[in-house]
Amino acid sequence: MTLPRTLEAALVIGRRDFTATVASRTFLFFLLGPLFPILFGGLFGSIGANVAATVEQPTIMVVASAADYQRLKEARDRLAESFPKESTVKLVSDRAPATRWTGPGVPPPPPPPPPVDGVLTGGLAQPHLVGSLSDDGTVAHQLRLIIADARAGPTQRAQPLTIKTISKSSGNIASARALTAHAGQALLFLLTLLLAGMLLSQLIEEKSNKAIEVLAAAAPVDAIFIGKLFAMLCVSLLGILVWGSCAVGALLLISNGSLAGLPAPALGWPGFLLMALAYFCFGYLLIGGVFLGIGAQASTVREVQTLSMPITMSQLLVFALSSTAAANPNSPAGLAAAIFPLSSPYAMLARAAEDGRWWPHLLAIAWQVLWLTLILRVAAGVFRRSVLKSGPRRRWFGLGRPRTA
Amino acid sequence: MLQQVQGSDAAVFAEDLVKEFGDKRAVDGVSLQVPAGCIYGILGPNGAGKTTTIRMLLGIIDPSSGRRTLLGRSAPLDAAREVGYLPEERGLYPAMTAREAIAFMGALRGLPLKEGRRRAEQMLTDRGLSDWIKRPIRTLSKGMAQTVQLLGTLVHDPRLIVLDEPFSGLDAINQEKLEAQIRERAEAGATIIFSTHVIAHAERLCERIAIIAGGKVAFEGAVDEARGRLRPIVQLTTRADSGPWQSALPASARRLGKRWTFELPEGGPEPLLKALIDGGAGIETLSIERPGLHDAFVAIAGEAAARDMTLGGAPE
């Protein structure tokens, strides 16, 4: 079959897959997918913050004269705004508050003392702390400052620092870019994993409802492979368009109609988004090709799960490699991640956030195109050999081993 | 046999096709020719290799060895737009409507989607099935879905129609309708190949057949030629119990009272009749019947294969 006819058949198959996926309930879940991590993140984040505020606040019992305790308590209250809210030490006195019982009968026993992390003895003259405290020294550091402030008294206190917040500083931009790099990588990884899984399910469904034979009788298996792969790419691009529009809309709302305040990635937003799109396409096509080749071997969902597990684990390793290298793209690990074809899209996306030069991206794209061609050819070959269990046995590869039709 | 129809004139030509799956040889040197415009049956019991042969002829799978041409093209998929194929295991997308399914199958064969939709509506309406047009496949019964798939096979007016076990799963009325459709398409000039393990369909429809058993072609040629391999059967009833006329009967003749059954001797009916009359048999009734395709199948493929054919029903 000629190339134009093959492409025409791929278009027919791809169009069917695209419309079937977009019109399905699965696509709605796919679109809602990013909301779940955000919702769960927000929910568990706020629960975690509350728990941290109530559980992690260290309590120190002060064994000292009433005057010393009072001065320490006042110093602690003055300095509290300088300490992290959830880990500011709480001071309690060893003396029970003097209350007179006015009720009838015998007064009830005093409430038990609160659980404490340490005991401060020796008053302001010779303070001595005993307790099970965290290794980072936060509590001891706070107590030193509180004791020093209590000794000096409120009149000796330094003028409070006046603060003016600006949106950009060199340190702030570097950390924002690192965050963009990590977020971009994580998004790319999750998306490709999700899409490759969807692609695989669709192939298995087609194999089980026997439609694959109808396709294979009318079009070359390469056309089926290309059609399916690119249909899912278009589905994902549609998803990205929807998510991107929502994200931009939300950011515009949050930043009062201006995105100028956001720290830009090294390539600038347009360049970064362009590269993100390109690396997403490459990342998906590389992994999708591998998954389709693998999926062609399987005929049941159970087989797919068995086969895709090692691939998913490898993908996680690839992601871990590129994620580790994201902080320093020029390190040996960063360069290795950029060169290894399956991790290259992730590593280069991180570089786009942190490095303003264009030539590494042009080089990486050429490199990825080369590998994409190679992997697609091999995967299409495996797909062709296995999807209808056709062709001679490939002892060297095992995966392409055909079975009875 | 292969010299009777020239390969270049044949709609389908195959020579020594072999297909091995691992250590198993599913098809072992199949050769056949299907002349353009004829109805051709591929007969064989379940597991004989019919589906694998069809898949190789259509280019769905590659043969391990051998060669084949489809409508004159050595790469079968090059002829895909002129071919309609109904696979044995029906494959439709459950969420698609009947109209979209038919149009999609046409689009795969190069028919523009818009035209495919128009023809699908027309075909369904012509068959009184207009209420199926917008119904998803998953809401149709198995027989209905099979009809939709058959229409999808025919929507682009193919020159060559290949039907793998088309009658399985259909009730008697729909089998009859399908037979009528096959004849109608053949009269319109299409070449039709179908596989079956039900001999009656082949006997009613086919001009030529291939009998496949154990992955090999046991017979390939005209239906009459297959029947011609057996002698006609004579049924004779006489008034006389015995006499010199008995010497005219072959040694294998079976007797039940005054009724005799035997194969017509080599000389034909006339010498037999003369000997019976001259010998005083007193012929009461005499009939000479041509053997059916089933008898020919038994003679060619053997009793075991024939038993599987009559018992057949499970997919290959």
TrEMBL record, chain A:
It is found in: Membrane. It is a multi-pass membrane protein. The chain crosses the membrane at residues 27-51, 186-204, 224-254, 266-287, 307-327, 365-383. Keywords: Membrane, Transmembrane, Transmembrane helix. The keyword Transmembrane helix applies. The keyword Iron-sulfur does not apply. Residues 156-376 form the ABC-2 type transporter transmembrane domain. InterPro entries: ABC2_TM (IPR013525). It comes from the Bacteria. This is ABC transporter permease. It comes from Sphingomonas arvum.
Automatic annotation (TrEMBL), chain B:
It holds the Pfam family ABC_tran. One of its GO terms (molecular function) is ATP binding. Residues 12-239 form the ABC transporter domain. Gene3D superfamilies: P-loop containing nucleotide triphosphate hydrolases (3.40.50.300). Keywords: ATP-binding, Nucleotide-binding, Transport. This is ATP-binding cassette domain-containing protein. It comes from Sphingomonas arvum.
